[in-house]
Every structure is written in structure tokens, then in C-alpha cells.
Specification:
The protein is of the alpha/beta class. Helices cover 42% and strands 17% of the residues. It has a six-stranded mixed sheet, with helices on both faces. A five-stranded mixed sheet has the order 7-6-8-5-9, with helices on both faces.
Length: 367
């Protein structure tokens, strides 16, 4: 198939993903008792807004959102404006919710942010802050795979075609000198796109030999007998790479900067608290996961997963640009025009007020 046709098919698949997800579960879930701290009586609204709608995943790499919600940091910062939450299972559905004005701000991975920004020709979102680094591992069946070279010829799961981990794994495969068709996943390694929720069952059944996945899925597999063969952080300078960003609708950022600043202030306060109170923060994140999913993580999964994630205000913009280059090299993305994807003005304002170091947009900020 010609390269351009393959790319068009990729975009068709990516464009269809939000619709498939939405058909299954709507934009996101709003539990009756979602664990959120309620608006204090008599508190003043910000920008006259009744609410700010915040999206995130029920995933430990979204710890800022989990802990900020559970401990009330967002609601405290927003005063009389209610912090409303929606929980998503995948990036495409969150981007669709942002595009359709169903959420205002969201925690999301780099690949969906890049795809959303480029698909709208730079008109729908901005990345306004960082949240987490790391928390991604290649875990394998130790009876079948004993070294990195043994991955060749095996069946390895990633969460979704073109998602952040899928792109990273395809790039790693290419660096080994192996060949895989990005669309079908067939080649020297069989890349099996499998939802994180069912990956542990796929591993137990033997239908996959391992997985390149985020936490806590990686630690769930280890609890089933898998071994960590590679931590993705070892492949990056300073062992840091973006796994979660904060995004906002451009219209909301323009019309309600005070509300956006309030959410960013809460995010910075949450991150500071998490890094100073790791055990308590871990428990708070797990409690919120339990509320959102109906089940908290057991200690043998929670503890190693939590240790592998770094919470940070820095969006690690240079690594996002590198991840975009990896997607292009894999044939999953045309050369993206990412100039303007970041607007870190309000984040740096908050950081300065906190006496903290400001962060850089790697030349990808607004003009």
C-alpha cells in the first residue's frame, strides 16, 4: 500500500476511535458518589462560572487529578465554582469530549494531545501544564522471554493503535533493526493492541507473551508472574519523559483565564503535597481509583506502580516533540505542526508565585 494511503487509513482509524468509545460508554462516567469535595457554602464563584468540568483517566499516571479531587485541592482553589469530573478510559474519547464542549480541562497522555491538536489544525486545545513522567514498562513471560533479543517473534500487547505506549514500542522495535507493519502489528514482533483492562487476562490465557504498558497494568501483570524486562524511563535523557499533560479548550482558556489559573494553582499544590506525602498520597489516589472503578488496587500492585511514576509540574515539552517524531517514523502520523500546542503562561505565573522554577515549552509555545 502506498505510504499516503496508509497514513490516510491511520487517520481514519484514529478518527473513528472516539466514536467507537463514545458508543460504548458515552464521554465519561460521573458516579453518584464520586469522592469529590463539595462546594463550601457562601464561597465566591470564579469568573462567574457555576462549574469547571475536568476530565481524567482512572489511572495512577493521572495521580494529580485523582489526589487533587480526593483531597479537595481543586474545589478549594475554585471556591464557589463547582469542580465537576468525568472519568475516561481512553484519550480519543476525552479529546472528543473537549471538542464537543463537554469538558473544559483534562489530564491526558501526549499522543492523544498531539493527535487532537494536529487533527484540528491547532484550533482545539493547548497543553497548559505537566503532571507525570514515567510509569511505563515492558513486562514479559519469563518462561518465554529471558532477554531483550527474545522479544523477536513474540506477541506483545500495547493499549491501542497509535497511543503513547504503542508509538514507544514501535520505535523501540525499529531501533532493534526489526520490521513491523504499524497498521496490522505484524512482522518480526506481533504487536497486539489490547485494552489495558483485559491485558492481564490475555496474559494469563497465554494469548500474549508480554506487554508494553503503563501503570498499574504493568504491576498487575507482574503480580500474575510476569517480569519487568525494560523500564521505558531508561531510554530517555535524565530518565524523564512525559506520560500525562494538562490540556484545556482554547476557547475556555481565552474566556476564563482566572478559572484555568485556579485549576493550575490546585495542580501545583497537589503535586507539591504528593511529593511531600508519598504514602498518604498513594492511599488517596487508590481510594479515588476505588470510587471510580469499584475496586482499589491491592498492595502488591499499588506499591511498585506508585514508585515508578514521577509527579511533576514540568510538561517535559522536548520529550513530547520526540514522541511526535517517533510517531512520524512509525508511519502513524504525518509531520505534525506543533508550534503553539503549549501555553505555559499561567503555569509559570503560578510557579513564580510559589517561588518555584518556571518551565520551558521547547519552542512549541504560542507566539
Amino acid at each position: 500500500m502506498p505510504a499516503n494511503s496508509a497514513l490516510r487509513r491511520t487517520f481514519a482509524v484514529i478518527a473513528a476511535l472516539p466514536l467507537l468509545t463514545l458508543a460504548a460508554c458515552g464521554y465519561g462516567s460521573e458516579a453518584k458518589d464520586d469522592g469529590a469535595v463539595k462546594v463550601a457554602a457562601g464561597a465566591k464563584k470564579i469568573d462567574g462560572l457555576d462549574s469547571v468540568r475536568i476530565g481524567y483517566f482512572g489511572n495512577l499516571t493521572h495521580a494529580t487529578a485523582l489526589v487533587g479531587k480526593q483531597k479537595g485541592f481543586f474545589q478549594k482553589s475554585l471556591g464557589g465554582t463547582e469542580a465537576k469530573y468525568q472519568v475516561f478510559n481512553a484519550g480519543p474519547s476525552e479529546i472528543e469530549a473537549l471538542n464537543s464542549d463537554s469538558i473544559d480541562i483534562g489530564w491526558i497522555g501526549p499522543s492523544p494531545a498531539i493527535n487532537g491538536y494536529t487533527a484540528s489544525k491547532g484550533k482545539n486545545l493547548r497543553i497548559i501544564g505537566g503532571s507525570a513522567s514515567g510509569g511505563v514498562k515492558l513486562v514479559v513471560n519469563p518462561d518465554k522471554i529471558k532477554s531483550l533479543k527474545d522479544v523477536k517473534g513474540k506477541k506483545i500487547a500495547t493499549p491501542q493503535l497509535g497511543n503513547t505506549q504503542d508509538v514507544a514500542f514501535l520505535n523501540w522495535i525499529a531501533e532493534q533493526g526489526w520490521k513491523v507493519d504499524a497498521q496490522s502489528g505484524k512482522g518480526d514482533v506481533s504487536v497486539v493492541r489490547t485494552d489495558n483492562k483485559i491485558t492481564p487476562d490475555a496474559y494469563k490465557s497465554g494469548s500474549i507473551d508480554g506487554a508494553w504498558v503503563p501503570e498499574p497494568t504493568a504491576s498487575k501483570l507482574v503480580a500474575e508472574g510476569a517480569k519487568v524486562l525494560l523500564d521505558e524511563s531508561s531510554l530517555w535523557p535524565d530518565k524523564k519523559f512525559v506520560i500525562t499533560n494538562i490540556i484545556v479548550r482554547q476557547e475556555f482558556l481565552k474566556d476564563h483565564p482566572k478559572a484555568v489559573e485556579a485549576v493550575l494553582k490546585a495542580a501545583v499544590e497537589t503535586n507539591k503535597w504528593i511529593n511531600a506525602n508519598s504514602d498518604e498520597a498513594k492511599a488517596a489516589a487508590n481510594k479515588q481509583l476505588g470510587i471510580d472503578s469499584g475496586k482499589e488496587l491491592p498492595a502488591d500492585v499499588l506499591d511498585p506502580a506508585w514508585k515508578s511514576i514521577q509527579i511533576t509540574d514540568d510538561p517535559l515539552a522536548a520529550t513530547l516533540n520526540t514522541e511526535a517524531e517517533h510517531a512520524v517514523k512509525a508511519g502513524l502520523l504525518e509531520n505534525p505542526l506543533l508550534k503553539g500546542i503549549y501555553d505555559l503562561t499561567l503555569l509559570n505565573k503560578v510557579l513564580k508565585a510559589e517561588g518555584a522554577s518556571t518551565v520551558d515549552d521547547a519552542g512549541l509555545g504560542v507566539q
